[in-house]
C-alpha cells in the first residue's frame, strides 16, 4: 500500500504501539544508567533508535500516520534525551550547562504552544533539523556513556561522543529558531485573516 500522506485519528496502529513501547522504556533506561548498567542502557537506547526509525517507516509505507503518532514520536525522543541528560549529569559525565541548554530550549518552545492554539494550530510537525539534532544527541550520549575509562576505545568513544553532542546541541537550537520563525509566520497569517486575534473588533 503506498503512502497516502494523510494523517488519521486512528489510535491502535503498529507505529503508535512502537512509540508507546519506547515511552515505557524511558524509566527503565534511566534506572540502568543510574545503576551503572551501561551496556544494557546503550543496548536499550539502540533498540529505541531502531524502533523510532521503524515506526516512521511503517507509518509512511502503510498509510498509518496518525495525529497521536505525531505527538508520541517526538515526545519519546525528548523524554529519552531528558532521561539521558539526567542520568549523565548525576554521574558527572556531562556538565550541567549542557543539560540546561537542551532543557531550556524545550522550555522556550513550550511557551509558543498556547500561541499556536490561540491561532487555531496544533503542535507543528518536527523539522528535519530537529530529527538530525535528535539523531546526533542520541548517538553521542551512548558514546559518552561508553567513554568512561582509560582505554583507547573509551577515549575514542569520548571524543566522538562529544563531537556528536556539540553538533546535536547546535542543530537542536537551530531547529528551535526555525520553529519560532514558523510560529511567527503562521500567527501573522492568522491575524491578517482574523482581526479578532489582534484584539480588533469586526463590528
Question: What do you see in this structure?
Answer:
It is a single chain. With 203 residues, the chain is an all-alpha fold. It has two domains: 1-92; 95-203, no CATH class. Helices cover 74% and strands 0% of the residues. The protein contains seven helices and no strands. The longest helix is centred in the C-terminal third of the chain and has 42 residues, at 152-193. The N and C termini lie far apart (51 Å). The mean pLDDT is 83.
* Beginning-to-end CA distance, first to last residue: 51 Å
Outline: globular
- Overall helicity: over 70%
- Note the beta-strand portion: under 5%
Major sheet size, sense and barrel closure:
none
Number of strands: 0
Structural class: mainly alpha
Tally of helical runs: 7
- Average the pLDDT over all residues and give the rounded result: 83
How many structural domains can be distinguished in the coordinates?
Answer: 2
H/E element string? HHHHHHH
Q: Which segments are poorly predicted (pLDDT under 50) over 5 or more consecutive residues?
A: none
Please give the radius of gyration in angstroms: 19 Å
In short:
The protein has 203 residues and is mostly helical. It folds into 2 domains: 1-92; 95-203, no CATH class. The protein is built from 7 helices and no strands.
Amino acid at each position: 500500500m503506498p503512502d497516502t500522506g494523510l494523517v488519521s485519528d486512528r489510535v491502535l496502529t503498529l507505529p503508535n504501539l512502537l512509540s508507546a513501547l519506547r515511552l515505557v522504556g524511558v524509566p527503565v533506561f534511566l534506572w540502568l544508567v543510574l545503576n551503572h548498567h551501561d551496556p544494557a542502557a546503550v543496548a536499550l537506547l539502540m533498540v529505541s533508535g531502531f524502533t523510532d526509525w521503524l515506526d516512521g517507516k511503517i507509518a509512511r509505507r502503510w498509510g498509518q500516520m496518525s495525529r497521536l503518532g505525531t505527538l508520541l514520536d517526538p515526545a519519546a525522543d525528548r523524554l529519552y534525551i531528558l532521561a539521558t541528560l539526567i542520568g549523565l549529569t548525576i554521574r558527572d559525565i556531562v556538565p550541567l550547562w549542557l543539560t540546561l541548554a537542551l532543557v531550556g530550549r524545550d522550555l522556550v518552545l513550550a511557551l509558543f504552544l498556547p500561541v499556536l492554539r490561540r491561532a487555531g494550530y496544533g503542535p507543528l510537525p518536527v523539522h528535519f533539523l530537529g530529527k538530525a539534532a535528535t539523531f546526533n544527541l542520541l548517538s553521542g550520549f551512548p558514546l559518552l556513556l561508553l567513554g568512561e575509562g582509560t582505554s583507547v576505545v573509551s577515549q575514542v568513544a569520548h571524543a566522538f561522543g562529544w563531537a556528536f553532542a556539540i553538533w546535536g546541541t547546535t542543530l537542536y537550537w537551530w531547529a528551535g529558531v526555525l520553529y519560532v520563525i514558523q510560529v511567527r509566520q503562521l500567527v501573522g497569517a492568522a491575524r491578517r485573516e482574523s482581526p479578532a486575534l489582534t484584539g480588533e473588533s469586526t463590528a
